[in-house]
Design a protein that fits this description.
The structure is a single chain. The protein has 264 residues and is of the alpha+beta class. It has a single domain, classed as outer membrane lipoprotein receptor (LolB), chain A (Clam). Helix content is 22%, strand content 34%. The protein has an 11-stranded antiparallel sheet with strand order 6-5-4-3-2-1-11-10-9-8-7, covered by helices on one side. β7 (151-161) and β8 (164-173) form a beta hairpin. It is globular.
Length: 264
Amino acid sequence: MKMRFQLRPPLALTSIALLLALGSITFWSCSGDDEESVVPEEVFAASVDAMQAEESFHFTYEVEKPSDAEAPEGFDVVALEGDVAVEGRMRASVDLLQNGVPIEIEFVALEDTHYLRSPGASSWQPVPAAFSPVGNLNLGEGMIGILQQIEEPEYLGREEIDGNDTHHFGGSTPAQEVEAIVQAVDREEPFPTEVWIGVDDNLVRQIRLEGAATSGEPEETVRHLSLSDFGEEITIEAPDGEGDSGSESGSGSGSEAVSPETTG
């Protein structure tokens, strides 16, 4: 009688092969489930709550236009960098074009009154927000409007922003919803929009808006808003020697020196 011998792989090799197979299945399953489990509307709603709970943040805001773009009349915001605190109070350094000439100003916003100071000037000029070169800029309100009204959102994957793991989304935002950020808007088409939201904290890290806000802007205009340093202890008050109610004092010659038709 012939005996048949069946060769069996060593137990250790069998275990390794099984682990590798399970690991491969787990990897592909987790990768797919992770992306599929991200529901834009749910992330946006959580981000609204997270942003409304924050009392302060640092920001940079930049407006990119083609180098050969025609300079508009009056004031045109090029960039801002500063801090936003409770109730929309803001302080920032602002880069502007005034009839095509670059200038830089210091800026403090307290509700309906803005305080402006040029480099080297010893005093601040209070003006009503409606006559300020920055206009009724409200970054917090603008961000919430985008998160609540962005249309046809699409999840674009994960991306690291300044060391923070974020969800990257694309979509479009109705023009009226970005007016708090862009200021003057006369277009009807929505703005192509990208938003980066923290995976762990649901805080907005970056927003990108594409397209002309007014008929005088090139369609290639792109606006970038980046946020950081959430929850820092920040106190923003009227500059020394100024009160919180400077609207009336800005209604004279100071308000004539700036244009209310500002594009940011």
